[in-house]
Q: What sequence folds into this?
């Protein structure tokens, strides 16, 4: 095997902390570490077993840099699958950079973004979906996101995909044997059992696709926009949800001129909220910029909270708003339940998927909003422990596999040659192996690892 370049980087965040870690990986990692790290017990790291920790000092040539602990990992039992030394030094930014500099002076090359994880992938330590899980875990902002990423890291999705690919691989092998060696005594392939298998695998992949949106909503949060004509209580609702005065609340129509954005957690669901200027026609140039932005926000939103004033009859503007939101996942929020009701809900109910009545001023009824959002987004019974597709790349691979399974089914139903079925099965398998990274092209791999930070 060719020697791998030995790389090094600061693996902890570029900020002051208690401990900072400089990670070194590659065939020469321990010899490089020996040049800068002198263990108190005088032992050499390059002669050490793996899973050992040493106390000692870091030197840059003749200059002592820091007192540190160095961990030794031996290939293949390390994160990257190579020899690894991790120097845990004091977590000052200057000190970490100084230790890294010493390591680079000793012969290591600076690691590129994601290079450690890329090596783990290339050395067969993790699948591509697990590499992506590392990224999700680092960026997780809540319990559910962290649990889901951890499960992906443990290979939950990979196991599920392999379980789907396995019968396909078996069928492909059987088909090609049958096609290539017609004279041999090979068991004939039953179209019915082939069809049943395709259907079963297809259903499993479709379940993954169906849960994708809910999984994304539960782990990454939901782009949510609050819309409604002026004075219905949008800012008050925004303030209620964020828990403090953020939008300007006034009794005059049209005061929230621009979008106000905030991330809130509502019943365990993270909403990236934008309170908009409203969508009405206006001749005020400043307000019209706000309206334009609101329209843009609306078109990109995954969830719309359309607010209505329950103490007013429905206006033409309200109806227009409902029309704008017709195609969106919408909750109609009937505000001001503390005032006498003048609004007739029949029209709204005929368009909105969910209707919630509340008082943004008192907060009464806001928990119903959380339930309605969870119901609408399918996050109610989302299980972060289950296998789930973590990103758009994986979703597209899964979709492609389903498409080829449909084609496979069609070839059998139409009585095409087994050759044709074989081609479709191969394409489905390829899509699944691209998902796990076993057959991902260089460009895909590059793209994924370029999104990592240096040191990971
Ligand atoms: P926006 O223009 O839609 O953002 O509306 P605001 O949030 O500025 O509210 C307009 C007016 O309605 C303010 O005077 C609020 O205090 C009042 N308001 C908002 N929510 C409620 C509510 O639930 N009950 C009552 N009685 N008044 C409310």
A:
């Amino acid at each position: 095997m060719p020697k791998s370049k030995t790389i090094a980087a600061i693996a902890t965040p570029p900020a002051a902390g208690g401990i900072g870690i400089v990670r070194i990986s590659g065939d020469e990692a321990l010899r490089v570490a020996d040049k800068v790290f002198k263990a108190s017990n005088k032992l050499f790291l390059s002669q050490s077993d793996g899973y050992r920790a040493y106390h000692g000092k870091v030197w840059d040539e003749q200059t002592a840099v820091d007192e540190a602990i160095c961990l030794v990992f031996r290939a293949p039992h390390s994160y990257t699958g190579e020899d690894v030394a991790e120097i845990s030094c004091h977590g000052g930014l200057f000190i970490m950079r100084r230790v890294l500099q010493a390591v680079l002076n000793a012969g290591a090359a600076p690691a590129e973004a994601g290079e450690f994880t890329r090596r783990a992938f290339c050395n067969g330590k993790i699948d591509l979906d697990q590499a992506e899980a590392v990224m999700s875990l680092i960026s997780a902002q809540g319990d559910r996101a962290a649990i889901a990423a951890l499960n992906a890291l443990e290979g939950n999705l990979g196991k599920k995909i392999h379980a789907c690919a396995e019968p396909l691989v078996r069928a492909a092998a059987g088909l090609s044997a049958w096609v290539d060696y017609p004279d041999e005594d090979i068991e004939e392939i039953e179209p019915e059992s082939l069809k049943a298998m395709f259907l079963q695998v297809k259903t499993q992949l479709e379940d993954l696709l169906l849960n994708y949106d809910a999984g994304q909503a539960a782990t990454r949060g939901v782009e949510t926009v609050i819309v409604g004509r002026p004075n219905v209580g949008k800012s008050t609702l925004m303030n209620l949800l964020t828990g403090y005065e953020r939008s300007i609340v006034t009794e005059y129509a049209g005061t929230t001129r621009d979008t106000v954005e905030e991330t809130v957690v509502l019943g365990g669901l993270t909403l990236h909220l934008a309170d908009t200027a409203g969508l009405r026609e206006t001749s005020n140039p400043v307000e019209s910029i706000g309206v334009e932005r609101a329209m843009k926000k609306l078109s990109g939103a995954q969830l719309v909270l359309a607010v209505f004033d329950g103490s007013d009859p429905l206006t033409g503007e309200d109806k227009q708003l409902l029309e704008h939101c017709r195609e969106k996942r919408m909750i109609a929020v009937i505000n001001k339940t503390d005032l006498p009701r003048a609004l007739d809900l029949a029209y709204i109910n005929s368009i909105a998927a969910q209707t919630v009545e509340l008082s943004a001023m008192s907060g009464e009824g806001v928990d119903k909003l959380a339930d309605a959002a969870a119901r609408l987004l399918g996050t109610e019974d989302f299980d972060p422990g289950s296998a789930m597709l973590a990103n758009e790349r994986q979703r597209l691979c899964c979709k492609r596999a389903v498409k080829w399974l449909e084609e496979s089914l069609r070839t059998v139903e139409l009585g095409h040659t087994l050759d044709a079925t074989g081609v479709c099965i191969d394409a489905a398998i390829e899509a699944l192996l691209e998902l796990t990274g076993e057959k991902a092209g260089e460009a895909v791999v590059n793209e994924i690892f370029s999104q990592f930070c240096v040191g990971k």
Q: What stands out?
A: The chain has 15 helices and 13 strands. The radius of gyration is 29 Å. Residues 245-257 have pLDDT under 50 and may be disordered. Residues 228, 230-236, 249-251, 256, 335-336, 338-339, 359-361 surround guanosine-5'-diphosphate (CB under 6 Å).
